[in-house]
Amino acid sequence: MISELADRLDRAATTVTAVPRLAAAAGLGPSAAYDVQRALVERRLARGERLTGVKMGLTSRAKMAQVGVDEVIWGHLTDGMRIGDGGVLDLSRLIHPRAEPEVAFLVTGSAVAAVAPALEVIDSRFEGFDFSLPDVIADNTSAAGYVLGAWTPAPEGLDNLGVLLEVNGRVVQTGSTAAILGDPRRAFDAAVRLAGGRGVELRDGWIVLAGAATAAVPLKPGDHVRAVVEKLGTASFKAAP
Ligand code: OOG
Ligand code: MG
């Protein structure tokens, strides 16, 4: 069953076709959903992608409210999801993508080596971007892409930095890193704990996305998207076509 559900989600992503929610019908709880997620990520690795880190999800109230799920979740990141800073996101590979501003941590020795402003592109493989907790876990927490700005040592006051999301030069979301579990470092600690609890140790050079500080916004062709995090700087991409 795990492998059949992973196939269904893998096919949804590779054929850019949304599928109905599947957890309830399959009697899938959160723990088995993480098994599906792992099997789904294994399919990407079998196609030659490499793991680059983990992402935390639903670490802010704004995100929990937007998707109607109120538990912290985590997923896997691969190099196939990486978009260079200022680079291009190919919208034709995505179903109904959204962008959200994030903070990224660089891992060394299971600890934080540096921080960077970041953007995440999420793209639920479920129809209507509508899912339960086990659904979104199985779907690798909607992971689709990420952009990293420049790395810097963690500044003073990392727990209360202003966060902006801009689309085509206009501010569309505002928030604070305080929205991320009160301090994004808690999201890093949760990543160590939750991924570690499922046998995934954070490796040197991996990144951890702390989870969005604001709600995500839908992407349109031609959008220029930029995250601005006070003291950390910016991360951006352009949505093509
Ligand atoms: C789930 C992924 C949540 C975040 O930063 O909170 C997430 C979703 O919103 O589809 O990446
Ligand atoms: Mg996110």
Brief synopsis:
By secondary structure, this protein is of the alpha+beta class. It has six helices and 13 strands. It has one domain (2-239): Fumarylacetoacetate hydrolase, domain 2 (Alpha-Beta Complex).
Structural write-up:
By secondary structure, the protein is α+β, with helices and mostly antiparallel strands. The chain starts with a helix and ends with a strand. The protein has a single domain (2-239), classed as Fumarylacetoacetate hydrolase, domain 2 (Alpha-Beta Complex), CATH 3.90.850.10. The chain is globular, with a radius of gyration of 16 Å. The mean pLDDT is 98. The chain has six helices and 13 strands. Helix 1 (2-14) packs across helix 3. The strands form two sheets. Strands 1, 2, 3, 5, 6, 7, 10 and 11 form an eight-stranded mixed sheet that branches. Strand 12 (224-229) and strand 13 form a beta hairpin. It has helices spanning 2-14, 23-26, 30-46, 61-67, 133-138, 184-197, and strands at 51-57, 73-78, 82-83, 87-90, 98-108, 111-122, 143-148, 162-167, 170-176, 207-209, 217-218, 224-229, 233-240. The structure holds 2-oxoadipic acid and magnesium ion.
Which secondary-structure class do the elements indicate? alpha+beta
- Quaternary status of these chains? single chain
Q: Mean of residue pLDDT?
A: 98
Please tell me the total number of domains.
Answer: 1
- The CATH homologous superfamily is named Fumarylacetoacetase-like, C-terminal domain
Alpha carbon gap, first and last residue: 37 Å
Main CATH class:
Alpha Beta
CATH architectural grouping? Alpha-Beta Complex
Radius of gyration: 16 Å
Shape: globular
Number of strands: 13
What share of the residues lie within helices?
25-40%
Strand content: 25-35%
The largest sheet, given as strand count, sense and whether it forms a barrel, is: 8 strands, mixed
Quickly count the helices: 6
Which molecules other than protein and nucleic acid are bound?
2-oxoadipic acid, magnesium ion
Outline the low-pLDDT stretches: none
Under CATH, the topology can be stated as: Fumarylacetoacetate hydrolase, domain 2
Q: SSE string, helix = H, strand = E? A: HHHEHEEEEEHEEEHEEEE
